[in-house]
Design a protein that fits this description.
With 164 residues, the protein is of the alpha+beta class. Helix content is 34%, strand content 33%. It has helices at 12-27, 33-38, 41-51, 103-115, 128-136; strands spanning 2-6, 58-62, 65-74, 87-94, 119-124, 140-149, 152-161. The protein has a seven-stranded mixed sheet with strand order 1-2-3-4-5-7-6.
């Protein structure tokens, strides 16, 4: 059984663990190794200790263990889209051992419902697995964007999701 609830301070270490593991697996070969190494579990723990409340994080729990999380709130990355897409999903990560089991769908749906508005989401353009997932969830390609890591620029796809 999967439960979804707002994150608490007690979840920060688990959120960091999921984020670091998912980040390493997902972006290996897509982003510079130095960028992957810098964003380890300790880095993520510091990041989420500051952001879990501000970014309105929801966690997915299986057997009382955090197996994924989603963050999102008001549009902050694409001001030109804000009138049509006032919300934004800032990040969605699922533990590698729990991917392809419906966790991502449940988290994305819960966040979209909680926001109650149309949202955007940025996805690395080379992440074909994630893009296919987001398209299956009703995401439409809106425009391209960029992600910067290790003094390099990487193309992103900005997807839009209608209000649920």
């Amino acid at each position: 059984m999967l439960d979804i609830r707002p994150a608490t301070a007690a979840d920060v270490a688990a959120i960091a663990r999921v984020h670091a593991a998912s980040w390493r697996q997902t972006y290996r070969g897509k982003l510079p190794a130095a960028s992957l190494a810098q964003r380890d579990e300790a880095f993520r723990r510091q990041q989420w200790a500051r952001l879990y409340r501000q970014d309105h994080v929801l966690v997915a729990l299986a057997a009382d263990r955090v197996v994924g999380f989603v963050a999102g709130g008001a549009q902050r990355s694409h001001s030109t889209l804000a009138s049509r897409y006032p919300g934004e999903v800032y990040g969605l990560y699922v533990a590698p051992t729990c991917q392809h089991q419906g966790v991502g769908w449940r988290l994305l749906t819960a966040k979209r419902r909680a926001l109650g508005t149309a949202v955007t989401l940025d996805c690395l353009a080379t992440n074909q697995v994630a893009l296919a997932f987001y398209h299956r969830q009703g995401g439409r390609d809106l425009q391209t964007g960029v992600y910067r890591a290790a003094q390099q620029t990487f193309a992103t796809t900005v997807l839009g999701f209608p209000k649920l």
